[in-house]
Design goal:
The protein is an alpha/beta fold. It is built from five helices and 15 strands.
């Protein structure tokens, strides 16, 4: 893909995903736009084994945007980073089409692997602010990763993951994350567990009170029989 076409595509992506934008010219001020243009150039150089020049371009982009994308990472079309400061994407990360990341996201390694060390993120995934995805596994298509989650193992397609460590709390969500960009309306397993415990405690209390009433009635019957 030529540079002009890349620029047009990045402009379209930013305008689609960010409701705060009002003109195409504003896109040129966005860290996401600037870092992605640098990444596209650096990645081509990296693939041609011009490693130093590729890293030089990517490191300049880090200093200007606060977003670190290794030029060896493979990123598809429609990729968008909202705000973006603190985002880190490792060398062997693979990202599909129409993926959205928020600030503070890390697609990193565990430090225990060699070769393929970083995650594969399939199409139409949203990874919320501060989430850490660490290791060489796959985040399935159409999935959401909740804010602040730490994901250490594979995620099935169309799943919602929250928590530390991250675990699946919802499956088969048919709405594509990039259509809603909703980071907050996610299941809260801790709150759900608390509500379950409250319900069970209320049921046990009711049963105990009923048992006490039965015991009092039995005692009155025994006392009446002894008179």
């Amino acid at each position: 893909m030529g540079l002009i076409k890349s620029i047009k595509n990045e402009i379209a992506v930013v305008k689609e995903r960010d409701p705060a934008i009002h003109s195409s010219m504003e896109v040129f001020l966005y860290p996401s736009f600037r870092v992605m243009i640098s990444y596209r150039i650096a990645h081509k150089l990296y693939m041609k084994k011009h490693y130093f020049l590729a890293r030089w371009i990517s490191q300049r982009a880090v200093r200007k945007t606060g977003i670190e994308i290794h030029p060896g990472a493979v990123i598809g079309e429609g990729f968008f980073i909202d705000h973006g400061n603190g985002v880190v994407i490792g060398e062997t990360a693979e990202i599909g089409n129409n993926v959205t990341l928020y600030q503070g996201v890390t697609l990193g390694g565990t430090g225990k692997e060699s070769g393929k060390r970083h995650p594969t993120v399939c199409d139409n995934v949203m990874i919320s602010a501060g989430a850490k995805v660490l290791g060489s596994f796959t985040i399935g298509e159409g999935s959401k990763i909740g804010a602040g989650s730490v994901v250490l193992e594979a995620v099935p397609p169309h799943s919602t993951v929250v928590g530390v460590p991250g675990h699946v709390v919802n499956r088969k969500n048919s709405v594509m994350p990039r259509e809603t960009l909703d980071q907050t309306d996610l299941p809260d397993p801790v709150q759900e567990d608390i509500m379950t415990l409250k319900k069970e405690n209320s049921e046990l209390t009711t049963r105990l009170l009923n048992l006490e009433d039965e015991m009092r009635s039995l005692k009155r019957s025994v006392d009446a029989g002894q008179k």
